[in-house]
Design a protein that fits this description.
- The protein is mostly helical and about 180 residues long.
- It contains three helices and no strands.
- Helix 1 packs parallel to helix 3.
């Protein structure tokens, strides 16, 4: 195999592995955004419910029953958050394993291609590389753009979450003032 062919195959493999890693980054970022959104929603719901409980104090319930009800809500919220965190960890592990397996497969295929040493194999590999490099480079650029846009989306979601959290606090404070 010529040095140029080996270099082309290695370049193709490196770009493809980088693309797989970019997709992994995007997947983990989206997963983290989703899980953070669920946690914020549970927290906001708990804060609103606490304000409502303080204001309304359902008259049909005794104090001990009301306390049990509030405790059950807190337990449920803790369960949901714990479940989301556990699932996030498990899914992140699976995504990382898939990325390692994919990049290992790419490296193994590259090593197998390099060991082929015949004029026919060299011509086939050169032709495939010539066709695949532009496609793979386009996919890599697209994946990089996807990573960039996902990170922008994550930053925007964080900013909006802060605004929503402030609104929930103001609403809860208003509710508490009305109750007083």
């Amino acid at each position: 195999m010529t040095a140029q062919t080996i270099s082309s195959v290695e370049n193709l493999a490196a770009i493809t592995a980088k693309t797989v890693e970019s997709y992994n980054t995007v997947g983990k970022t989206l997963l983290a955004m989703y899980c953070n959104g669920v946690k914020r929603a549970v927290k906001a719901s708990a804060e609103r419910m606490a304000g409502w409980n303080e204001q309304n104090k359902p008259s049909l319930l005794s104090d001990s029953t009301r306390e049990q009800w509030v405790k059950a809500q807190e337990t449920w919220n803790e369960f949901v958050v714990q479940r989301v965190e556990t699932d996030e960890t498990a899914l992140t592990t699976v995504m990382d394993r898939m990325t390692v397996a994919a990049t290992s497969g790419i490296d193994a295929a590259m090593q197998n291609l390099i060991t082929l040493d015949s004029p026919v194999a060299r011509n086939v590999i050169n032709t495939l590389v010539a066709f695949q490099v532009p496609v793979v480079e386009f996919r890599a650029k697209w994946a990089d753009g996807l990573v960039s846009n996902t990170q922008k989306l994550e930053a925007r979601m964080t900013e909006q979450a802060d605004v929503v959290q402030d609104a929930v606090k103001k609403s809860t404070q208003k509710t508490a003032r009305k109750a007083a």
